Amino acid sequence: MSKPEMQGMQGIQGPRRRAVLGGAAAAAAGLTLAGCGGDDGGGDEPKGRKKGEKITLTFWSWVPGIDKPVNLWNSKNPEVRVKVEKVSAVEGAQYAKMHAAIKAGNPPDLGQIEYPVVPSFLIDNGLLDLTRHGIDRYKDKFVGWQWQQSVFGKGVYAVPQASGPMGLFLRQDLFEKWGVEPPATWDAYEAAARAIRKKGAWIETFSATNGNRFAGLAWQAGARWFGAEGDTWTVSIDDEPTRKVADYWDALVKQKLIKTIPDRQNAWYKDVQTGAMASWLGASWGDALLVGNAPRTAGKWRVVPMPQWKRGEAAYANWGGSTTAVFAKTKYPKDALDFAIWLNTDPESIKLLIENGYGTPGAKRGYATSDLDVHKDFFGGQAYSKVFDDASKGVDTSWKWGPATDTLYQRLGDAFTAAIGDGSSFRSVLKKVQRDTISDLKEKGLKAEAG
Fold first, then answer.
1. What's the CA gap between 99 and 442, in Å, rounded?
2. pTM of the model
3. Of 446, 358, 386, 378, which is closest to residue 69 (Cα–Cα)?
4. pLDDT digits (tens, 9 = 90+) for 15-26
5. 59: which strand partners?
6. pLDDT at position 306 over 60
């Protein structure tokens, strides 16, 4: 842990810090957290806005087009204006900025926070426990498993926005030209990779630095990276399901059946545009990404379900997904919560968010699955969002994120990059990252052990 981080942790009152850090594991197990909350552990409850008072809430987000629904809100709520401040999402820069603001005592009122990193903000006492402000009455408006990602003990620390159920984007024209069937299983995927390689192209890349996607692949296989026993976090990155996934991709890499360039960067975009890369295991928000970066391939793409480990199964996973969180220091908790709920449930707001490709909504109502087919022409007229809607129903909802996931992703990226470079096994990556993650949690004052 860096010196500034240690100083920030020391600034939390002793009993308060132990409640948050020691209690987080119990919360992950679904236990009640006495005294665990997101507020700053001291001072009076904010009095909120006076009747007729005009205020401005700050909202940090990187979502493209987020200003459109915010502008709509502002036009309807002149007394409670929201000011969007864009933050960079490159290599976690947005979270570094948020954590720094929390430690400095000047965070925004609201922030865009992905599901995997919500626990990290609980360690900072950075998020407001929204149950104290009536969020429970909105629970039925949201998809259950997305809601649950921000629930720790009896506290709810963020409002679901969207998820990213996974599927397989593929160039149907190339698959048909080469006589390759869309793979329904991972065995068939390897066979397809071999057939496509013989044609001089590649089926995919293993992006060493994309820990988020690797987590999704492990999730689908039945992994449980984080759990809890009492007040102790259990870390199981080196479990059998994840080993199976690691072995599979290790074999593809060593047989040179897939590339190893980073995805969603210039070289990858070029391969996607030219047809040198014939498919991509992506998430529901990937439609906008392909449209924006491979315009000359319009009409040639389709979406099919994610390959299964056993034919006939329907196990899927999630890549990405965000919440709208309220920071503990806000002076206007009720108004901030009202905006967060409106942003993610109002049909007009959802329509604007969908148009900008934000993923699969966290709200249960206010849209139809067909509304998500914003780029239907690009996918040859396919109602492609049904594939992702079906996948969302097969996501294992028992998966729970643990603290320091942003650091975990960095460690995975470094270790996979090194393994590809020196030819060591992907299994060795899991062993190393598990050890390092346990050490990371202990350095943060948490109890942690191998699961």
1. 19
2. 0.87
3. 358
4. 343 344 445 554
5. 84, 110
6. yes
